[in-house]
Each structure stands twice: as C-alpha cells, then as structure tokens.
Amino acid sequence: MSIESEAWSQLYRQAHAPQERRAIGRATARRILRFARPHRPQLIGFLAFSVASALLAVANPVLAGQVVDGIVGHAAPGSVVMLAAVIGAVAVLDAGLGIVIRWLSARIGEGLILDLRTAVFDHVQRLPVAFFTRTRTGALVSRLNSDVIGAQRAFSTTLSGVVTNAVTLLLTLVVMVRLSWQITLLALILLPLFMFPARRMGSRVAEIQREAAQLNAAMSSQMTERFSAPGATLVKLFGRPRQESTEFALRAGRVRDIGVRTAMLQTIFVTALTLVSALAVALVYGLGGWYALRGQLDAGSVVALSLLLTRLYTPLTALASARVDIMSALVSFERVFEVLDLKPLIQDAPDAKPVPAGPVSVRFDDVRFGYPSADKVSLASLEDVATLDARGGVEVLHGISLHAEPGQMVALVGSSGAGKSTIAQLVSRLYDVDSGGVRLNGVDVRELTGRSIHDTVGLVTQDGHLFHDSIRANLRLARPEATDADMWEALRRARLHELVAALPDGLDTVVGECGYRLSGGERQRLTIARLLLKQPRVVILDEATASLDSTSEAAVQEALAEALEGRTSLVIAHRLSTIRSADQILVLEEGRIVERGTHSRLLSAGGRYTELYRTQFATDDDPEPVAV
User: Fold this and answer.
1) What's the half-sphere exposure (Cβ side, CA atoms, 13 Å) at 120?
2) How far is Cα 582 from Cα 575, in angstroms, rounded to an integer?
3) What is the DSSP string of 144-191?
4) Residue range 406-431+449-616, CATH number
5) What beta strand segments (E) does 112-155 contain?
6) C-alpha–C-alpha distance, residues 588 and 414, integer Å
7) Confidence check: pLDDT of 195 > 50
8) 584-589 and 592-597: which strand pairing?
9) How far apart are CA 579 and CA 572, in angstroms?
10) Beta bridge partners of 411
C-alpha cells in the first residue's frame, strides 16, 4: 500500500473510531477466542502467509538496489539479468501469496460472520415477546449486519495488518540501519511531521462526520415517514408540502456544506502527508547522493533506502492507528455480545415433557402476573434511550382461575386493558406466571416442552400478521411438511380457496408486507387456514373479527366455526353477539374475573355483562347472533 493510500485509510479510521473508550475485559477476549477457535487452522496459515508477504515486500527494494549497483559497477550482464529474474519471481510469488491470503481472509471473515449471525439470530428467537415490543427493529438488524461485519474485521483485516506491518517495520529498520544508520535516523526524526497531522486532522474530520451522520439520519427519518402512504396522506391533508420541502432543503443544505468542508480537510490532510513523505524521499536522495559521491555509500543503497522509506512510513502509520482498528472491532464484538447476554425468560425445564395426548383441557389456578420491566428484557442501545425504564412487575392479573374442559368454548369479555390478551399469551407460554399455574391437561406449562405447547395451542390475533412471502410459505409456517392438497383443503375450509385459485400465481402469490395486498377479511381467513392446517387441540381467538366489516365478518365467522369444531377454545370477543353460545363467559375488569356464567344467566343477573350488552346493542333489543 502506498503512503497516500495509507493516509486515506488512517483518516477514515480516525473519523469512524468508536466514541466509547472503555476498557475491554478479559471475559470479552476469551469469548472472542471461542468464536475464533473453529477457524484456528485458517488463522495460522493466514498469519504465516502474511509474514511471508512482508518478507517479500522488504526483499524487492534490496534487490532493486543490487541491480543499480550492478549497472553502475559494470557487472556481468548475466548477473543483472539474474537479479531481474529474481525480482520477477518475487513479484509472481508475492502475487500468489496475495491471492492465498485473500482467500484465507475471506474464509475466516465470512465464516466468522456466519457463526456470529447464526448465534445472534438463534438467540433472538428465544427472547420473550416483551423484547420485541420495546426494541427498534432497525437497531437490532444493525447488530446482525454492521456490528457483525465490524467484529469479523478483527481477524480478517486488523490481526493480519498488525502482524504484517510489525514484521515489515522490523525488517525494514534492520535493513535500513545496515545500509545507513544516518539516513535511517533522519527518516525517524521526520516521522512526527507525518504522524501529528493524522491525529489532529482525524479528530476534526471525525467530529464533522458525526454531525453529518446525525443530519443524514434526520433526513432519512423524514423521508421514511413522509414517503409512507399514511405519512404522505397526512402531509397532503394538512396542506404542508411546501413547508416539508423547506425543512428538508435546510437539512440537505447543511449536509452539503459539511460535505464540502470534509472534502477540503481530507484533501489538505492527504496532500500534507504526501508532501512530507516526498520531502523525506528528497532528503534521502540528497543525503544519500552526497554520501555516494564521497564514496561512503553505494548508488544502489541510495535507491534501496528511498524505496524502503515507503516500507517504513506505511506500516508505522498503520500501526499508529491500529488501536483505533482494534477498539472498533472489540466494540463491535461487545455490541454483539450484549444481545447474546440477554437471557430468555422462557426456557424448557431439563425434564420437560410433551403435552399429554388426547383432547386438552385448559386450567388457570389463582394466576397472578405482571409484565417484566425493560431492564430484564431489553437494552438501552436497542431502544434508543439513555437508560432503561426500571418500572415493571406491576401485577395486571389478580388471582385468575378458570377451567375449559376438552371441547368447550370459554369466552373472555371486558373493557380494553382488562387482561384478556394477557390470559391468551399465558396459555401459549409467551410469558410465565408470577404465581399460580397454567395447566394443559392437568400439567403446568412450565413442565412441558415449548415445541409441544406451540403444536397444541393455535392463536389467531386481530391483526392477522403475514410475512412478505407467498401464500404457500405463509401456510407452511403451521406445518412445513404439508402438501398442496392439504393447503387447498385448509383454504376451502377457511372459505378462501376460490379467491386463491383465481390468482395468477395461485399458492405462489406473494401477499406483500404484513399481507397488505389482501383485504382485511381475506388476510384473517388466510390466518384461519393456517390454523386449520396446524390442527391444534386448543384454539385461542383474540378479537379475530373486531376490525372487520359485516360482510367480511360473516365469511370469517363461517371459517372460525370450522376451526373451533371439536376443539377446546378461548374466545376473546369484542362483539358479544358472537359468543352467545359459549359454554362459559368470563367478564374481566382490571385483571379480575368479576362475573362468570352463560349468556342467559349473566343477562338475568343484571351485572357488568348486562351493562356491556345493553351498551353495545342500544339500538337493537334482540340482535341476531352470529354463530361461532
């Protein structure tokens, strides 16, 4: 690498240096070594070839000097040709080593990226739902991309750079001192003129780069919000396109000004360092030429020293900024380890067993529960806050007891925030209770395997979430081994087969992000088809029809009737007409069951259920129920 190239590289590293300057503990170093252990053979070969490449880098200037001495000394032509052939062979060998080093670097780097990404991805999937409700998705994805790549540079770039540059520097100094200690001393005296501008200019550029990054982030945030359909509609409705354009232009103008300042600082910096190195070469030629004319130094040594000078300044500059590289890599490792250190709240017991076979009963025994605080499930850096909210653990369910026999339907009604969805999440063991117990077929869910619970319990939520993938892929989430015939049967039972059959790509039709290419009713029926394909023994409906119009609701209710047939079910209902035939209705308020019974019994009691019913059907004395 030339001095100019290394100057640009060092400037970049200084500008992008990590802002955190804390010490890296031994525990972090040991964890890094554990990740590197599977790549030990490649690492050893990588370092060995890097050292060999450093030796060849020093050999070239020495050989060039010998060629000059041969020419000046009128040596035999054959010897000069032989030296030239050796120089060519060294070049070929160096090129071959470069290819091998690059291959090993890619193998180590990409292998480490694979290991880290897989470890983080697998770990994140085991984290509780509360983690995802608090975390910024973009920040989490950044850990899997930029931070993982930053961590792998510690092995693929930084480690080899430190070893290669250290060997090159040592050999260069030894050779230069042997050729002329006076010129070597002069080169080292000029070194501060080369190093100090890098430190000062690098910190100034770093400040400007961070300001530019903040402005770019603000512009990106404005564009992301305004370019979405809801954001664009809001801007148009309030007639603010001109004001939005003015605000964006101001930010973009500041970014332009910073870009000009950065370009000029970088150019001045690189020009100054290149000038210093050129002056150093000029001094070498001047002092070396003077020694050569006085017979104290060979002409070839002068040429060799001038060429070795670049081999001296380049590794010195790289080693001076090696701490920045190491800190950047280690900070990236720590940011990855932060995620890996988050402990999953839900884990299988060592002796966990599957849900017992046969129809399943659901039972809550005096269940008390409070959602965990942020400091137990999240990271401040992933929430974009200075400190995590320590509040939490406030009890939201107070002594809940219920029992759904196999094949029964139990309905949960009540005000928003009463705890209905929390009960649904506890059955699926998305959270664990604080006290009491949730039992499937008489066995506490904490004693069952997570896989068997998720195979047993099927949940349909109000939003009916779908992945940006094909209908086939979204259905196969429920049963990966399902055949096309199985899927079409599930779609038929969900009253959706005619629509899918009419689509140009059929099962391979991509539904779009969150399934937005389908209507609300179609999306819900597809999630019901997925539930039917799964064939769970317990079905939980969390207000699955709350946001649908009457026509869509009727179609979805028909599909739900298929889904609930012969299964134990918990139905969280917003429309009370849908649960009139429930075996038992539980009325929740503020985390407590205040009433329970059948529809007719609760109406005759004249309590909270009657109040909810009359409020909902104030204009309809006897609404016709939609059967579930």
Assistant:
1) 21
2) 13
3) IIIIHHHHHHIIIIIIHHHHHHHHHHHHHHHHHHHH-HHHHHHHHHTH
4) 3.40.50.300
5) none
6) 5
7) yes
8) antiparallel
9) 9
10) 571, 585
The CATH class of 3-340 is mainly alpha
AA letter at 115: D
Sign, Cα dihedral of 537, 542, 547, 551: positive
Q: Output the pLDDT for position 363.
A: 92
Q: What SS3 class is residue 402?
A: strand
Q: CB–CB of 537/458 below 8 Å?
A: no
- Write the single-letter amino acid at 624: E
**What's the alpha-carbon Rg for the chain, to the nearest Å?**
35
C-alpha span between 554 and 575 (Å, rounded):
12
Please report, for residues 124, 209, 339, 395, the alpha-carbon distance to residue 142 in angstroms, rounded to integers and kept in the order given.
13, 19, 12, 34
> Both tokens of residue 420?
């209905």
Amino acid (one-letter) located at 456: T
Closest CA to 302 of 103, 509, 69, 468: 69
Helix, strand, coil tally for the chain in percent (to 5)? 65, 10, 25
Strand extents, DSSP E, 371-520 = 395-404, 409-414, 435-440, 443-444, 457-460
**Residue 49's CB: how many other CB atoms inside 10 A?**
22
Residue type, 475: L
Tokens 């690498």 found at: 1
CA–CA separation, 601 and 59 (whole Å): 97
Cα 592 to Cα 582: distance, rounded to the nearest angstrom? 20
How does pLDDT run across 439-493, given as a tens digit for each residue?
998 899 999 998 898 888 888 877 777 888 888 888 888 888 888 898 898 888 8
Among 422, 403, 416, which residue's Cα sits nearest to residue 360? 403
What DSSP string runs through 527-582?
Answer: HHHHHHHH--SEEEEESTTTT--HHHHHHHHHHHHHHHTTSEEEEE-SSGGGGTT-
Tell me the C-alpha distance between 154 and 33, whole Å.
Answer: 11
Helix (H) or strand (E) holding 538: strand 538-542
Domain segments of the chain: what residues?
A: 3-340, 406-431+449-616
Return the SS3 of 86: helix
Tokens of 153: 């540079």
Bridge partners (DSSP) listed for residue 443: 440
**DSSP conformation class of 143:** I
d(CA 336, CA 267): 35
Cα–Cα distance for residue pair 42/61, rounded to 1 Å: 30
Q: Name the CA dihedral angle for 105, 106, 107, 109, rounded to a multiple of 10 degrees.
A: 80
Give DSSP secondary structure letters for 303-371.
Answer: HHHHHHHHHHHHHHHHHHTHHHHHHHHHHHHHHHHHHHTSPPS----TT-BPPPSSS--EEEEEEEEEP
The tens digit of pLDDT for each residue in 506-550 reads: 888 888 777 777 777 788 888 888 888 888 889 888 876 655 566
DSSP H or E segment with residue 570? strand 568-572
CB neighbours (10 Å) of residue 609?
23
- Asked whether 171 and 55 are in contact (CB, 8 A), the reply is yes
How far apart, in Å, do the first and last CA atoms of the chain sit? 74
- The least confident of 163-177, 317-331, 396-410 is 317-331
Q: Rounded distance, CA 489 to CA 208, Å?
A: 61
* Token code pair at residue 500: 């899918």
* Token output for 272: 């100054």
Residue type, position 87, single letter: I
Sheet containing 395-404: give its strands across: 395-404, 362-370, 435-440, 443-444
Q: What is the model's pTM?
A: 0.68
